[in-house]
Amino acid sequence: MRLRSASGQISILGVIFLFIFTAYSTIQGFASQLYGEALASEMESTLYATFTLACFVAPAVTNTLGPRLTLFLGALGYAALVAASLLLAIVGAPWCRGVVVLGGGVLGVGAALLWTAQGRLMLEYSDGTDQGRLFAIFWALFNCSSVVGGLLTYFYFSHHSEEAPVPLYLIFLSCIVLGGAATALLAPPHTIARPAASASASAEQRVAAAAPATEDAATPLPLLPPAAPPPTLPPTLPPTLPPT
After folding, report:
1. Which of 1, 82, 160, 200 holds its CA 20 to 30 A away from the CA of 213?
2. Count of CB atoms within 10 A of residue 228's CB?
3. Helices 67-90 & 166-182, crossing angle to 10 degrees?
4. Mean of the pLDDT values across residues 174-199?
């Protein structure tokens, strides 16, 4: 599998989400243990509020900046929450709680950008005939993040019992930074190498879509069949008189 193929690029995209969501899914699952119930509730509420609002502007940002740069900016939003959590674990001051809530808000904006860019790349990398395979590759890699994050957290808390897991936050921040850096490996969709059959089919579809309608196609069909001509009667001969 070549990296410049559609499957190769979707695999890179899946690995990016694997790194990012290994950190985020674990933090979200253990939010009450990591932050306390009150702070976890405030952070999650702020996150999803900003996520909902940012979804209205994320498509415009993606169209302006392009999906790859938008994906990178979205990854930075996830790093903001981990960095805020790390600050809370190291400093522990009351004002750090507000920073965590702010980090959740930044993550909500980043999530809108990240998922919008992901959807556009998934469609642009596909040629219309391989969507099922590409979606299977991405979601298989994405769902591995829950497994990796769960194992990482299990082994960490099996040997550490502190309430402020600074090393764990450092691991999570490293995962997100690696995921963001991996966006540089994503190729522009128009440079993807495609099989000859799918490339010719795509070209034919583009030509057919761009071709103007022909005269025959523009001529409307008659609603009723043409009327049959009236029957012709045989010619009538003048009457003949009997001889006198």
Report:
1. 200
2. 6
3. 170
4. 84
